Structures
1.
Amino acid sequence: MTTLQTVFAKAKADNRAALVGYLPAGFPSKDGAITAAAALVEAGCDVIEIGLPYSDPLMDGPTIQDAVHRSLTNGTRIADVMRTVEGVAATGAATLVMTYWNPIDKYGADRFARDLANAGGVGTITPDLTPEESEPWRAASAAAGIDTVFLVAPSSTEARIKAVVDCCTGFVYAASLMGVTGARETVNVAAEGLVKRTKAHTDLPVCVGLGVGTGAQAAEVAGYADGVIVGSAFIRRILDAPDEAAGLASIGALAGEMAKGVRR
Amino acid sequence: MANEGTILTAADLAGNGAYGNDPDVHGKFGIFGGRYVPEALIPALDEVASVYEKAKNDAQFLREFDHLLRTYAGRPTTLTDVPRFSEEAGGARIVLKREDLTHTGAHKINNVLGQALLTKRLGKKRVIAETGAGQHGVATATAAALLGLECVIYMGAVDCERQALNVARMKLLGATVVPVTNGSQTLKDAINEAFRDWVTNVDTTHYLFGTVAGPHPFPEIVRDFARIIGVEARRQMLELTGKLPDAVCAAVGGGSNAIGIFHAFIGDEGVRLHGYEAAGHGLDSGEHALTLTAGSVGVLHGSRTYVLQDDEGQTIESHSISAGLDYPGVGPEHAWLKDSGRASYHGVTDDQAMAAFSLLARTEGIIPAIESSHALAGALELGRELGPEATILVNLSGRGDKDMGTAMKYFNL
């Protein structure tokens, strides 16, 4: 199993940022999600985040909302998420689950952490779990030997950044902008400052997500961050493709462009 | 009190811990409440909490709020005895707290005036809000017009259709109404969309949350601004009947009108607190909004509370004939009151609510909101249970003008 620690150490040795790709489980289909994630790994993604589809994704923009809605309509369950993780981890990429808190809470924190570890998952990103409420999840994750990634935002005070990074293992997710997920024309200038402020409080790698959609943007972010996170841009290409094969080719090409970007 | 020229006290507003159920520093009522939101929103929530903390102890703020409640909202609202309606309740004496007589026609005006004043103190010029039945949207648009704030209302597309009149009212008041077309296209999706707007525009915008749910400090702030309902009603009941009521009844969707009337009675152990949720087509139909009666503990819209959810934590869409009760979550303080046993919660079907709606109109000449009709139906049953000596206070949270379309269809008028 490839750990986050290995991935970031290797990227650092290569003097580049890591490339992190996001896709929801069950999209465009249960098997299609595994094939699509494998295509991202093949094209150069080092880390894959598998999204756990949730009925009320309040920090996601229209692209991910659309994909998640289709996934839930396809009947995606947590067992499918675990199976997706297993399939993707087999490609050699470090594989995380990104999820809102309620599905874990309902499934049972200990059980979820154990099942994820057994599937070969290396950790979770939980965007609506704040440090104040995170203790049960951190305990369950530590017991199962998986990492816990939380988010800092441009609005975070120094005290909040410290509280968040103290809960993180693996890496810290820096949200580049105040807003929901989705590709933007430009990457917010606040991102660089946030990475700098975050690094003052931790030695963990800091990855930037929200709004990254092109190779040039990936290169720009790689100039100051340890990892570049891309989600909506891949999903948009799958949604816009005439068929699954074309979608796979399209996200492979985009991931390839991004992989070059983080190596510039 | 208010119309005698005296003013609201800080204790009237907040109860200031008098009943031992103010949330802790993390916004927890026991295990319920808290904050489950993107980190980006934490500073804004902290700011709202600290500005509110100062405001509620500031005489100037209390004076401004009191002034608006008296001269704009029309407080205090009266109590009305409804003897002809009560005949159907086994002769128990039912007394209505007339929130339907406030400006804009529902209790929602209390909270929005308080939060609109807070918005000014936050130095923000734009408010956003979610709305189900449209009452909170109308109230927010009203307060925004009054205080010169830009106003955007998110409303499920399904709700826009069943409450078309309220959409027109909001537009007339200068608000922008955004129909939300994702998910179930009702209140829960409108809340998701409002949060998305807020996280994007938080520097300029206050999210004028409409019920006692959501992340801390909203459950506490909205409760405090709605609390005047019970403070007045308690005093008025003593004047009218010489004693406290045997029971207080209110409809529960998100729970703001119910907490508003319950809160001042929490310390009165002899007073039963009964909340009525929408049972829609009945529990067995699966089409209901019985969050407290049939839901389970989870997290929705930033707060730990009871939620209608499946075995994997996906929200189940609720159903009610009344848009204002059509919500799969509920305020965390209600969850706490339920688990502590201080309040009890029951279901009222669409048909039972519509029967009470019609009965009040025909026996008393008052057309209630369908939301409030759930509490009326509950009171009829409770009256038959408690007997003719009992006195029951019901929060008539709003008027039924907005529900005429639904009533025309339901009764073939």
Note: Strands of chain A lie at 18-24, 47-51, 94-98, 123-125, 147-149, 151-152, 172-175, 206-209, 227-230.
2.
Amino acid sequence: MSVETHNSPWLRNGAYAAMAVAIAVFPLLISNTFHIHLAQTLLYTTIAVIGLNLLLGLSGQMSMGQAGFYAIGAYGSALLTAKLDWPIAAAMIAGIALAGVAGCLVGLVALRTRGLYLAMATLAFGFMVEIATQRWVDLTGGTMGVYGIPGLDFGSSTMGKTYYLWVVGAVYLAVQIASDYVMNSRIRRNLLALKENESAARTAGINVPAWRTVVFAVSSLAAGTAGAFFTHQNAYINSDAFTLNLTLTMLIATVIGGLGTSYGPLIGTLITLMIAELIASLYDVSFMINGFILLTVLLLFPQGAIGLVQQAGKFLFGRTGAGPETPTAMPDRPVALPAAPPSNGPTLVVENLTKRYGGVVAVRDVSLSIERGTVHALIGPNGAGKSTLINCVSGLYRADSGCILLNGRDVTGLPAHARAHMGLARTFQNLQLVSSLTVMENVQLGIRSNRSIVGDFSSWLLSSSFEAEERARALALLQQFGMAHLAAARPEDLPYGHRKLAELARAIAEEPAVMLLDEPVAGLNDREAQEIADVIRRIRDSGTSILLVEHNMEFVMKLADRVTVLDYGERIAQGAPEQVQKDPRVVEAYLGGSLEQSAGKLEAAS
Amino acid sequence: MSAANFVQLLLSGLAMGAIYALTATGLFIAHLATTRLNFGQGDFLMFAAYLSMALLLAGVPVLLVMVVVLVVLALMGWGLERFAIRPLDRMRALVGGQYSWVLTTMGVALIIQNVVTLLWGKSSQYSPPLFSANRQNVVQVFGAGVFVEELLVIVAALAVILLFYALLYRTRQGRAIYAVAFSPDTAALLGIDVRRTVVLVFVMASVLAAISGVLVGPIVTVQPHMGLVFTVKAFAVASLGGFANPLGVLVGAILFGVAESFSNYVNSAFGDLYPLLLVMALLVIKPSGLFGEAKTDVR
């Protein structure tokens, strides 16, 4: 899981070249056709496992139906070649595409639900495909299978197996490179963010349902690819090959290699295949052995083979190079904050916003507007509706009525990630950092890259300065908060105050027009609160508008240009801080009655 | 379709629906309290069916068979929680992924399946009836010949479910389960033994699988691979209830069983797949199940 921060393309590309050479030479040196067959199986199965590794290891979604996509790829290509005489390449592509389409359909469930439901839906999907392969005899031949599938041998009976290995090897390498890119780029950061913390991911501008569905579709394409290769390796398929056991074998390979690691799938598939060969004679207890493997790996070695090797390495050589080191020569002065885009009129306007939970009205008919480069504080007793309002503005909740304008554009109907892209950033009352990313990577989540995926990929593949700009910017932001030395640390290793600053840094990295701060100094001491106040002033002076929810009155009154007071979901006062402080309704809301009344009650009681 | 046919199909559907309701209620209760469940629920059911069949064939009295199967399965439920699920909690940040429990419970299911194959063989078998003299015992209902066994399965399953609801809503232990479901930490502060409650829900889930297994044995053919079918269908049924509403689970199960019965009649080859497809489509349109409200949890 150590992802090198410094891109060293030549070393890595050297490794790819070495693998390419190994794949090219292997069938020429090895004369045992069974071993060549095993190498082929290893390579195409690894492709499916890489897909599963991205799905489970990065996006945190569980699929119990990979055998179904594998079967669709296999039968698609088998039937198109055997029955319709399509050329192999076209049939394979069509089979893989079919698996992808099925993946998108099942992915719809992933889009609408989460976690457990996807695991169940995929289990049901795999089950239905298995039944279909068995019973739809007219199409699939059932247990009798499909005959007459052409082998992928380019017409050569002597060199056929070699050619096959080269083709599957080339496809594997391409998939491995793509997967390595994902593991080293913003895609990994985005996926880990949405896996761990959906709200934070959405407000940082990540379109969570779209990402989930895309990853799911990609994993089904990978499984379909493996299935298509399987078909043309054996020139015969029947329904016995596509049971739940196949899915479980792929899952075992994913976990046994090391979940979420680059080479986990290759190592895991290799181990799984070796085990399968070793226990081939123990067919009667194969289920039991698989069951025990699952339990042993998950309960005793959940970090997998790659994880074990890394641990052993740490043990033997001490802490080795993983993780970014802090550059020593960094400018001392604060880096200038980017100026927010200039515009006329207020940057954020909330008009007559109402939000109900069942029968309870949490926010009733509240309006406010924030001028560019000002701090607008939202205060009120507990339960007044402040967090609800901020959640409606950021798009995590949908308002029941009213509208929200950002830079003059109506965003009421837009999802959270779209609002983030339009210049809305936020922090959370209870911190929402992604614990499996470093502090710097958390800040990088906020940085918008305008490089296309192709540009980003080629920069990763070829340039040693991949993401250098983003990293420098993230580091500069951390430097400003005196946290540059913590860039490589995990959020949970930081003290509370620093975590708050890291979240603030992520929000600033988005270069927002409007920033929503939900209790930025709750739980901090005076000195830390002072630090945050300075930061907020600087953000404001750079032209960003700030909506601040906070209980610390001293902090609010010092910082705010305008104040809105909520009580029981209604706006009871609005104006300059001094003015609001004196408002009798505000005093009453906070103290539960005017001072005179309280005094009167006391007298009456005595 | 004749009226007699209709009644027969309806009752078969109700019987299977009642079984699905029992199995799915087990999934529901475990998920309610722990957000986890047993992906081998159907295999637990399958094991119970085999165990009960073996004991019945050995001449053990029906009541004793039930007691033995329930006790064995309760122990298995305890073991599952203790050895395949709880150890995952101790791991730092769930290195194996947040759905490790899916795979560990699946691993246990594989082992059970293999043990059953070794003990009783791979072929399909018929379990002797529990209540009536033989499997083919028929009574006349509305002019249709109906298996006595099926009728009694419906009655028994519904009785167990009612008993279960009473336990869930009328006892202290039931409220403890809801408290743990709301928040384990808060429940612990209120003096509830959270660990015991978690063990309890898995034992309950397993006992419900046991009852389903004992009841289902005589009305279907018993075979080692039947577990997956029941797991998948119980999932479908539990999602119809949104995993949140036990009444939804019951209604969903009955509808599912009846729909399956008629769909099997119309198309004997793929009839059992159509209700599943229907449920998946419904999940896309209404993810929270039949009666659930769309819920968002955001902080």
Note: Chain B is about 70% helix and 5% strand.
